[in-house]
Amino acid sequence: MEKLKEKKWVVKEFDEADVLNIASSLGCSRALATLIYTRGYKTPEKAREFLEKSQEILHDPFLLNGMDLTVNRIIRALSEKERITIYGDYDVDGVTSVSILYLYLKNKGADIDYYIPSRKGEGYGVSSDAIDTLHARGTNLIITVDTGVTAIKEVEYASSLGIDVVVTDHHECTEQLPNAIAVINPKRRDTTYPFASLAGVGVAFKLLCALESEIEGISITDATRSVAYSYSDFAAIGTIADVMPVIDENRIIISLGLRVAEKTKNTGLAQLIDVCKNGEGKSARQRSGRKISSGFVGFTLAPRINAAGRIDVADDAVELFLEEDRQRAKIYAERLCELNKERQHMENAIADEAFLQIEECGEDADRSILVLDGNEWNSGVIGIVSSKVSERYYLPSILITFEGNDDPSSPEAIGKGSGRSAGGMNLVGALNYCADLLEKFGGHELAAGLSIKRKNLPLFKQRINEYAREWFKNALPEHSLNIDYEISFEDLSLSLAKEISYLEPYGVANPTPLFASYGVKLVGVTPVGMNRHLKLALEGENKKINAMLFSTAPSELDFKWGDTVDIAYSIDTNEFNGTESLQVSIKDIRLSQKTKELEAEAERLYSDIKGGSSTLLAADIIPSRDEFAYVYQFLQSSARYGNSSYRYQKLSSDLSTGAARYVSGTEIRLSYVKIKTIIKVFRELNIISIDEIDDFSFEFKFSGTKSKTSLDKSNILKKLKYTYAKEKR
Fold it and tell me: pTM for the complete prediction?
């Protein structure tokens, strides 16, 4: 497992004539037309519908099973001043769901509170202990959001205490549904709803639309417009954070919500956005009119909202969004930012331990899913680390922590696990295959959680790998990168970045466009963010651009100044001090295919020469003493500047273009073959400490002063001279 698999770049196919037809009809660039086409909109009419979002509508909320019963029960609770408790989850989807339902019902005069279980103390889902707490508070009606669809026993228990329960959820349903007043879930097997991929907050949003229509006596259309104006910002944030597909009404909810978020009327959300954009601890300034993108939500807002439930309690995030005082809201927002920093430190430490576990295991052909465990890992962070593990190794992974147990090594110790899928494997299906070994489990196809006793862990690892091997048919998933469009590096521009923004919002099923450019020169590498990220200077024939390579330390970059590389990347606009500029984010970087082809050809020639079958002249094969000296001095100089490795092809290029390439009046032009021969001789005679990385590259080290060594002692040179000098006899 030590060596990471190189990603295979797969460029999407398209019909040239159809793309040109779209470009001509819409008056757009060929690049934008291609991106629209590869998303499945292959005619000008469909392309226009996609851009205008006219093919998507918000469906009637009363098509959701149980919506009418739910609305009637809530209206009765409002009328009779019953105590309503919203019971949610501790992630972003749950927090935003709790927030909008609380704010809406509070505005309608409800006697209302909320309850979110502690991730560490209680764990996911509805519990009997929590119901006891709510019963003591005088709760008459519980409305679950983003949870509850598997809480069969708990709903029965609540009923026995005289508490009615309405379940709203979006997770996978089992055969049996809770015996609640109503169960609203678009994934119900008997569903009458036309779209199954709503987030939990999406279901809550539909409930608000239905309530507004009934309470105010207005049409669904007018009710939806009113609710969207006040709450679609939260619906968008929760939908993006829960990685729901950006299609159908999710695309509408996100599009509306991002626009509303730019001028949000929610004091807490406004303060969080302000702190994120202006920096923690600084005085709040009037927020700029810069648009809020799905990327800003996914990578900036969502992690901070999530941090509350992961590190402490999710109540901090809910209280932020319920707070009306600007200064108190700012304190909550800065608190979330601090928690997020703490989360990042924990995440990095756990990731280091997880990667070390994997490396220490080495190559393991029987491992089709990575199951890792730790005694003290924070349960709120392991899901994020699982994502990192799966992304790096392109295998499904599950991380399990035994924190909180008096004796984590006890066979009865309970571990909490969080997993992420890869290669399309159904993670919930895999857990169901091992259900008899688990205390409980649940989630989605791509992300799931579980709890397990330590004594069952070895058999669980064995069993879940059986499932994974069968799923992958004993062939591990290939890590591929889907390239939307090949583009000349010279054609990159700010105007192109602005044009493709018409495809937003991005997300699952409508991903951020990925471009590829080939044969780009790497001319600078600058560490940023405490060496966590890199800024790369890239150069084409007539263009130089800076690009960001995130989550990569300098030591992890396999390329050096002057290398020719291929890059896969996304583009966006960046605004600073009122000036817009092109922003390039590298998603993958590799040695250029052209360089690889040249190396392969040179390696074949080197093999022919070793075998004595080359027709080249001796002068083209056998290095001179001056050439040996030149390479030695060059490597010695490189070592002083911290360089300790080279590719033969790159060294050949550097040596042939250096300012000091003339020795005794003779120009030095060293081929791949000569370079490799020289390095092999240095290694043979121990002139320089050489370790071969592979056929095409090596590491070197100068260890102290060595006495002069005669090159005539080299058996490599003797063989070459015998084979190729004899032609002169």
Answer: 0.79
